[in-house]
Every structure is written in C-alpha cells, then in structure tokens.
C-alpha cells in the first residue's frame, strides 16, 4: 500500500537525533559518487516572487523526487515561502512507496545539514550563536544546532525589528542590531531572502563558522566578498556554481563539499573562519523521506 504522509505524520517520527547523522551519510555518499541526481531544475514563474523546483535523486537505498514551490511572495502571510511534495520509490524494483508533504522535511533537513557541518567546523567550545533572520529556518537552526553545540547566548537580528523581538521572546534570545549581533559570535546563521549582501566579513570573529542557507538564487546574496574569501564549504560544487549568488558573484574558491568533510577527505583547520553555503540538494530530501517512511512502517508494525 502506498502511504500518504502529511506534515503531522512526518512530525511524529522525524527528529534531529536521527536526521543529523543521516544527512552525514547521504552527503558522504553524494560526494563519493554513489548518488545519481541532476542539479535542481528551477522554473521561474514570476521573478523574485514564484518559483517551481524539480529535484530527483537515486541512492543505494532511496529513490524519488521532490517538487518544491519557492514563493518569496508568501513572506509575512499565513502561507510558508517553501511548500513541497515528495514521491518515494523502492530503488531496486521501482515500486511506489509514499507521497509525503515536503514542507517540514525541507525545513528540518536544511537545519540538520547545517548542524552536521557545524559539528565538524565550529570552534571548540562554541558558546555564542547568532541568527540573522527570524523565520522558519532561524527556529529550525536553533533547534538543530543545539544538538551539536551548547550555547550560552543566542542573538537574533531581522530586517523587521518586531519580528526579531518576537523571536527573542519566544526562544530566550537577545534581539540586537546587525553588526552587534555578528561581532564575537562563534556560529552565525544567515537565513533570509536578501537580494544584496548584508553580512560583512570584517565583523566576523576569527575562527567563526557561518551557515549561509538563504538567498537561493544565482543573483541573490547574503555575504559580502570579504566574508566569502574565508574557507568555503558547499553541499554540491555543481549546484553552488549554478545556484548560489554568494559563490558565483564573489568568485570564491570552494575548499570542499560537506560530504568530503564528513568522510575525512578534506579537513579545514579548526582555527580557520569557515563558511558553509547551502543550496539544498535532492538527496537530502529523498534520504529524509526514506527515514520518515521507515520510521512510520516500523511504528505501525510494532503497534
């Protein structure tokens, strides 16, 4: 029987304790050439407003495709900016297994990948986390990063100060102006739909780690050229060079893919300032969907 799983179903069985190591395994397999997937095909419906992405992937134990709506026009409304559906198949037989709502999967896998990279690259004894942006990804990153670091202080900034204040009140964070929030932070997350760079490299603490997960278009940016001249990690070289304006426009040199770091093939020095530019790739979604499917099946069999 083909399962149909809602966001509520996904939330019952998906957790960061399992998802973070699963993302390490999936991206290690990707960088080792054991995953078949093209770069996301992004259809522009309305520039800067509405996009439809098509994302298939095949791995040894998972096969499927995600259709994702990226609608920046939804920002500030009741509708999320990212909405998606995932189709999951059995890779050895082609048997359809499940249709899954992809909104929460996209949210959590993005933060889980950042957490996995942070575990390898953040300064030892990181204590200060700065979130630039106060939306869904800021909250997801706060949750995921707490699985790999123990923060004494969480700072938040948003272009809309009321949003930052609301986030701070909900999550025990401190709302700050942009430069103050960045200076002295051990880990920084940028999670916005900025069109122009707003994070200046001169503000970064030496040895800090940055997870740049926003502005997922080839002409959009969050980080300036100074920030991008630090040690750069990406989830996919091919995808970053096609989709990430921060990488394309700065002409920054890519040090490694995350999967190469996880596999021990590339190891930046802990003292280096590091940037992880995430665009999000299909294998992250398909591996997460398979994890959800297996957990649901296991739960039903033992009920």
Explain the overall architecture.
With 303 residues, the protein is α/β, with parallel strands linked by helices. It folds into two domains: 3-106 and 282-302, ornithine cyclodeaminase, domain 1 (2-Layer Sandwich), CATH 3.30.1780; 117-277, Rossmann fold (3-Layer(aba) Sandwich). Helices cover 37% and strands 24% of the residues. The protein has eleven helices and 14 strands. Strands 9-8-7-10-11-14-12-13 form an eight-stranded parallel sheet. A six-stranded mixed sheet has the order 1-6-5-4-3-2. It is globular. The relative contact order is 0.18. The model has no long low-confidence stretch (mean pLDDT 96).
Reconstruct the topology from this structure:
Elements: E1 3-5, H1 7-13, H2 16-31, E2 41-46, E3 50-58, E4 63-70, E5 82-89, E6 96-101, H3 103-121, E7 128-132, H4 136-145, E8 153-157, H5 161-171, E9 174-175, H6 178-182, E10 187-190, E11 209-212, H7 225-228, E12 231-234, H8 237-243, H9 245-250, E13 254-257, H10 258-262, E14 274-277, H11 282-302
Parallel strand pairs: 1-6, 7-8, 7-10, 8-9, 10-11, 11-14, 12-13, 12-14
Antiparallel strand pairs: 2-3, 3-4, 4-5, 5-6
Helix pairs in contact: 2-3, 2-11, 3-4, 3-11
């Amino acid at each position: 029987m083909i399962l149909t799983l809602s966001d509520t179903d996904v939330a019952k069985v998906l957790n960061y304790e399992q998802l973070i190591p699963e993302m390490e395994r999936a991206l290690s397999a990707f960088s080792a050439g054991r995953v078949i997937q093209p770069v996301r095909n992004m259809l522009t419906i309305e520039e800067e407003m509405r996009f439809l992405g098509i994302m298939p992937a095949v791995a040894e134990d998972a096969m499927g495709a995600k259709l994702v709506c990226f609608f920046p026009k939804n920002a500030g409304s009741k509708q999320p900016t990212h909405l998606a559906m995932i189709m999951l198949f059995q890779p050895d037989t082609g048997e359809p297994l499940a249709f899954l709502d992809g909104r929460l999967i996209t949210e959590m896998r993005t933060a889980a990948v950042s957490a996995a990279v942070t575990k390898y690259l953040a300064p030892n004894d990181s204590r200060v986390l700065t979130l630039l942006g106060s939306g869904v990804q800021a909250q997801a990153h706060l949750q995921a990063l707490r699985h790999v670091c123990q923060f004494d202080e969480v700072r938040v900034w948003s272009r809309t100060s009321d949003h930052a204040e609301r986030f701070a009140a909900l999550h025990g964070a401190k709302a700050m102006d942009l430069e103050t929030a960045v200076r002295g932070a051990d880990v920084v997350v940028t999670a916005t739909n900025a069109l122009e760079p707003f994070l200046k490299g001169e503000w970064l603490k030496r040895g800090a780690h940055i997870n740049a997960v926003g502005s997922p278009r080839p002409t959009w940016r969050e980080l300036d050229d100074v920030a991008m001249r630090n040690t750069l990690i990406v989830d996919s070289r091919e995808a970053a060079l096609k989709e990430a304006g921060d990488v394309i426009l700065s002409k920054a040199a890519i040090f490694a893919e995350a999967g190469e770091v996880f596999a021990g093939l590339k190891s930046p020095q802990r003292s280096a300032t590091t940037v992880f530019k995430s665009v999000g790739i299909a294998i992250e979604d398909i591996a997460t969907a398979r994890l959800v499917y297996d957990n649901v099946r296991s739960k039903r069999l033992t009920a």
